[in-house]
Amino acid sequence: MTECNKNNNFNSNLIILLMKNKLIKATLIFSIVTFFGACKPKTTADAISGNAAQKVYVAPGEHDEFYSFTSGGFSGQVAVYGIPSGRLLKVLPVFSQDPETGYGYGEDTKPMLNTSHGFVPWGDQHHLAVSQTDGEYDGRWLFANENNTPRVARLDLTTFTTDEIIEIPNSAGNHSSPFVTDNNEYVVAGTRFSVPFEDEDGDIPISTYADNFSGAITFIKVDPQSGRMAIDFQLKTPPVNYDLSRTGKGASSGWFFFSTYNTEKAHTLLEVNASQNDKDFILALNWKKIAEMVKEGKGRKVKADYAHNVYDHNTHSATSTILNEVHVLDIEDLEGVAYYIPCPKSPHGADVDPSGEYIVGSGKLASLIPVFSFSKMMKAIEDKKFDGDYDGIPVLNYEAVLHGEVQKPGLGPLHTEFDANGNAYTSFFVSSEVVKWNVKTLEVVDRQPTYYSTGHLTVAGGNTKKPYGKYLVAWNKITKDRYLPTGPELAQSAQLFDISGEKMELLLDFPTIGEPHYAQIVPASLIVDKQKRIYDINANNHKYVVKNENDTRVERSGNRVDVYMTLIRTHITPDNIEGIRMGDEVYFHITNLEQDWDLPHGFAVMGNNNSEVLILPGETRTMKWVPTKVGIIPMYCTDFCSALHQEMQGYIRVSPAGSNTPLRYGTGDNAPKE
Ligand code: K7E
Ligand code: CUA
């Protein structure tokens, strides 16, 4: 054991002692850890071996072996990194407006951010799930959750675009989400906050929580061809909070395991009041049976408003529809499909190993990791080994379903992923480390400190039936001294480990955007061959497309002006426009006529109050502009598209309201003359 690990253990033991005092709070634990200081190697060489640099070096012109799709947390976006280099490849706009592309600013993408609360231009993005076929990544879609205004997005991995967003009604804090079943039948979302359902009177005292609030678990059906999402049904549950969860696989295929906390049903000061019970639950659900019950007509329609937003790559436009009804089943009314497994101390994660036999619980305040056995669970259900019930749902006997406990693994276990060799890797927030242990023997095999306080960790394919192993990334919550300081706010941090050997080896630190929560690490080979390079201009069905320069025009109707515009290297048509007046609303409908890969043009107008838009080859974008000053207003291409990019510019003449400057426009010989 290194000095470093001894220190960590000393801290852990001390904290465990303190935890026996029931009054201790999570914040206090955190201060203690901060006080002792997280473990730090004396020199970089202590932690990094000589060949680490070689292992992460991706030579110029070479490609990374894996993509890492990483949550952007409160940035609302998803970042794509290459692994092992840690290079940032792209930030994908999902739940937040993106001035770089115009997503959520331009007229055709604004509907993507519509909700039942109106336009919500920001989101808190935590978890990601790559679509699966037979329990393995198929590389088709990426699902992303939004925590704050409950939503689930689907991104297409041929275009790396957000193609669909569905709002989750009767939920608040869509944190336990999204989880895909092993053949993409469903994307599943559990609520963080329990709340009164929308069809009930919500104008009630908060102190009536236990009687009037409910939890919700939502099953979103995914069309196997198009990927289109639709809420199939919702389960109404006792008012607990749901956290990270996993679908079963292999042996446990057809089941779902949800971690819960706040079985105390607290509605205030949760840090104390929701940490009273020695054990919370993992909710085991037979989702296949429940889906059959829904088909047979069980449940009822309930009023609830939620938005369904779809982006269409033929019209290059999004639509938003507000739906008004969901199918709801009360979990208490369902027999033989829902059971509680007791799990110590406010579980944050419930993870299922590649075989599907072992279910790992991770209590945020626990000092051990319980591992449950699916076959024992089935046996216990058969033998009715229940310890009473919780709100009508049978509670299984802890010992009867327990495979065993990992003793003294560290402190504050959060999340667990797996490799292909029977090992589990658990992140420890409080003791700031990643711990490798054997799923069958429950013995700790290795531990490595992290810098600092890891939240999630991701193993390549680590949540599937066939993990790729090889790399693990720890997504850290605290950065402190790892990078050049940048004022009060520091970059968030990720750490890459080589896990191909018995011991984990730290290879690389790299900064991330927003706050990284979970990520999916996917072999590039699953994705690269399916890439779309351009949009076929002939298939462009945008409402305002113009496919050649002769059709470009400017039309006035009252105070609305429509500019049908084209861009091609290296001019704008029309690039001189006169006759725009104060009080007008101008809509630029801009088509990029290019049909070459990697040739976007951008478009910007001085003083415009939203953003530029980026238009990809063959695409059309509509941008709104309301002139604010009389005079000459420049416009130009924002993306350096050729040697004469800087020449790709034009002018708009804005006249006072009511003026009779004629509407004239053109480019070159066709430009309006005096
Ligand atoms: Cu950061 Cu998954 Cu939101 Cu755990 S969660 S750490
Ligand atoms: Cu087009 Cu720069």
Walk me through what this model shows.
With 674 residues, this protein is mainly beta. Among the domains are: 96-204 and 214-239 and 299-333, YVTN repeat-like/Quinoprotein amine dehydrogenase (Methylamine Dehydrogenase, Chain H, 7 Propeller), CATH 2.130.10.10; 537-670, Immunoglobulin-like (Sandwich), CATH 2.60.40. The protein is built from nine helices and 45 strands. It is globular. The N and C termini lie far apart (85 Å). Mean pLDDT is 92; it is low at 1-42. The protein binds sulfanyl-(tricuprio-$l^{4}-sulfanyl)copper and dinuclear copper ion (CUA). Dinuclear copper ion (CUA) binds next to loops. Dinuclear copper ion (CUA) binds at residues 567, 570, 601, 637, 639-641, 645, 648.
